[in-house]
Amino acid sequence: MSFGKINLITPPDKLFNLNLGYLLIKPAAKVKMQFQQILSQSMDDLNVYIYDDDDSDVEWMLSVSQQADIIIVDIDNCDGLTRNFISFLLAQPNTFYLTNDELTPWSLISRNRIFNLDWIIETLGKEDEDEEDDEQDD
After folding, report:
1. Which one of 6, 49, 52, 72 has the fewest CB atoms closer than 10 angstroms to its CB?
2. What is the spatial distance between Cα 90 and Cα 42, in angstroms, rounded to a whole number?
């Protein structure tokens, strides 16, 4: 059993390959820790794009959002500049968001609200099963 290679990519870099890609936008420390624990169990090669606290290259974030397979936005941790683009990001079907804000009706834009990252384990498990099925078919 071997674990997959994880490529950590931050602005201004980009990586073009066929790996499953995650984009984390302004993740809080708790989200980073949970994501790290989940990825430590991954058997796949993955790209993890991080748009973090000190980042302000919105052009990079929007560009990478178009190539990432899964986008996770921590709305409560977003700065004012990033908040200007949340509606656009939430309108993407592959964007999932975390928030404690019960007043802003984000659910009108997206029903992909999450409360933790546990569902990623299921996603990664399905990827592993699909690869095993493909190997058995060969």
Report:
1. 52
2. 26
Q: What is the reported pTM?
A: 0.87
Domains with residue ranges and CATH for the chain = 6-137 (3.40.50)
Measured CA to CA, the distance from residue 130 to residue 26 in angstroms comes to 31
- Find residue 110's DSSP bridge partners: none
Give the pLDDT mean for 7-21. 95
pLDDT at 127: 57
The pLDDT, as a whole number, for residue 38 is 84
Neighbours of 71 (CB within 10 A): 25
Phi-psi region of 82 (alpha: psi -120 to 50; beta: other; left: phi over 0): alpha
| Greatest pairwise CA separation for the chain in angstroms | 52
Please give the pLDDT value at position 130: 55
- HEC assignment per residue over 54-121: CCCCHHHHHHHHCCCCEEEEEHHHCCHHHHCCHHHHHCCCCEEEECCCCCCCHHHCCCCECCCCCHHH
Choice between 16 and 128, residue whose per-residue pLDDT is larger: 16
Residue that is written with structure tokens 């997206």 in the block: 110
